[in-house]
Amino acid sequence: MEKLTEQSLVALLAQAGLESKEGDLERFEKLIDTYMASLKALHSVDLGDEEIGPTFHPEWTAK
Amino acid sequence: MPYPEKPLFHLTIHEAQKLVQSHALSPVELVRAILKRIEAVDGKLHAYLHLMADSALAEARVAEAEILQGRYRGPLHGIAVAVKDQLDLKGAPAQIRSKPSIHLQTSEDSTAVRKLREAGAVMLGKLAMSGLPSDPPQARNPWNTDHITGGSSTGAGAAVAAGLCMGALGEDTAGSIRNPASLCGIVGLKPTYGRVSRYGLAPLSWSLDHCGPMTWVVEDAAYMLQAVAGYDPRDPTSIRAPVPEYSAALREDIRGMVVGVPRHYIEECRARTDPEILTFVDRAIEELESLGAHIEEVTLPTLKLATIANAVIYYNEHFAAHRKDAPTLIKTAATARRARIYLGLLTSAADYVQAQRIRSRVKREFAEVFQKIDLLALPGQPGPAPTVEQSGPLDTLYKHLAPDFLAPFNLAGLPAVNIPCGFTRANLPAALQLAGKPFDEPTLLRAAYTYQQRAGWYEKRPPI
User: Which of A3, B64, B422, B457 has the smallest C-beta neighbourhood within 10 Å, fewest atoms?
Assistant: First the structure.
């Protein structure tokens, strides 16, 4: 796991009053690295002025 | 009404309901046959977590008496069903809500279970799911018990395929109904978000969780959806919209229907997809065309980010939903659930908002495409069921982090159904997935039914 990610996770756990189970940070190292890379990919797309609008639209029923 | 030639536990709901209604088959006889089947094979399949044999027989006797008195309630009356552990079932333990040494007994039915009871269904008990704290034996695939069922509705996949219940309710956050349905050769329907109440469903992710039916044939999915669909004031995301007559949609006619195929996305997933599955799905799409549908290639540019956006929302909402129990979960929960907690914790607010923005974009792209088409068709799974030895506890999480066929429809809240479309050389099921417009389950069911009747895969049963 990248040092910065590990430090962040340890700090976030402490902030939440949590402690990782023994061996978990090593056990999940590859998964966490894959996840962090996925988060980067998530931000790589240009969404322009896209906002959060979780609504359905009446015109969806039209063909 | 002639008595069936096949074992009673292999009757579909559609077949059984006609016999039950005409008094040719007693619900008590039906439930006894299924209980006997469970006793015979569930030691190998591990589908049930909690079997309620006595209360099921008592409910079957009540159903029998009502039917004999002329008070027939409909196609689920006297029909034996079971539910995934995630759904509250009065009198049964809720393992997903339990902690070590605290086994929660549920005192109230979830809305979906209550509605099944009102329709006259008999409750057999609770089915296994992956990620439980007690770490029960892994459910096995009835097509080959060396293989997994897929999750997380693991027990529902096994039970429906093997005749250990006539239908089941599952839950789908990132494919958890459709994945085991695909791997076990059954029908799995994830309805539109808001169509079926989530009240009494232990949350994994509030905005992605969907409750829906898992059945042997499409007709049965229509019956079960009919029973559980509808507005529920106890679920804030439940939609107050008319519930159509789903069985009325079941006619063999898809002439003129426009079926969109996102070839670019299937290509995106090709490296992680078994070529045999792609061949079966291509054949199924050709079959839809031969039945009168128009096939049109469609493009959804942001779909490639939908699965990871779904995962980010899932893990973040999962952490928020279980924040209070996190100190215990992090010490005692199953491997995958602990991993979800760490990933949820690592997800920033900016990540969550970005995932929601992608969700808006993906929904808009779907909306634009659905102006021109009635349905989308694509694979229902990346490959056949792996063996138990081949599968690891983190496989599902890795799958959530690369484009896949299932999660985009959780993200967008669109209805999707997986139906069998072939068997691999190793005799393991393959599935076609059809997805539709919001609240347009009737079109989905009609297309799935038409294909099912032509292809006839439902005639083949697991060897167990």
Answer: A3
Binary contact (A36, B346; C-beta < 8 A):
yes
B47-98 pLDDT per residue, tens:
999 999 999 999 999 999 999 999 999 999 999 999 999 999 999 988 888 7
The single residue listed with the structure tokens 């010490």 is B331
Is the pLDDT higher at B266 or at A3? B266
Residue B362: which of B409, B401, B399, B314 has the closest Cα? B409
> What ipTM, to 2 d.p.?
0.89
Strands B167-172 and B144-148: unpaired
Q: How far is CA B451 from CA A60, B246, B343, B384, in A?
A: 25, 17, 40, 20
Quote the minimal CA–CA distance from B326 to chain A in Å. 8
> Domain spans of chain B?
17-459
Q: What is the pTM of this model?
A: 0.95
| Rounded alpha-carbon distances, angstroms, from residue B126 to B81, B181, B217, B271, B359 | 10, 17, 21, 37, 33
- The answer to whether B16 and B25 have CB atoms below 8 angstroms apart is yes
Q: Which residue has the tokens 């999707």?
A: B416
Q: Verify cis geometry, omega within 30 degrees of 0, for the bond prior to B152.
A: yes
Domain definitions of chain A by residue range: 3-43
Q: Do A42 and B308 touch (CB under 8 A)?
A: yes
Nearest residue of chain A to residue B208 (CA atoms): A54
**Which residue in chain A is spatially nearest to B374 when comparing CA positions?**
A63
DSSP string, B52-96: -HHHHHHHHHHHHHHHHTT----TTTT-EEEEETTB--TTSB-GG
Q: pLDDT (tens digit, 9 = 90+) per residue, B190-220?
A: 999 999 999 999 999 999 999 999 999 999 9
Q: What is the DSSP letter of B18?
A: H
Instruction: Answer yes or no: do B371 and A24 touch at CB < 8 A.
Output: no
**B312 interaction partners in chain A (CB closer than 8 Å):** 38-39, 42
Q: How buried is residue B298: exposed, middle or buried, by Cβ count under 10 Å (0-12/13-18/19+)? A: buried
What would the CATH number be for the domain defined by B17-459? 3.90.1300.10
Q: Provide the pLDDT for residue B376.
A: 98
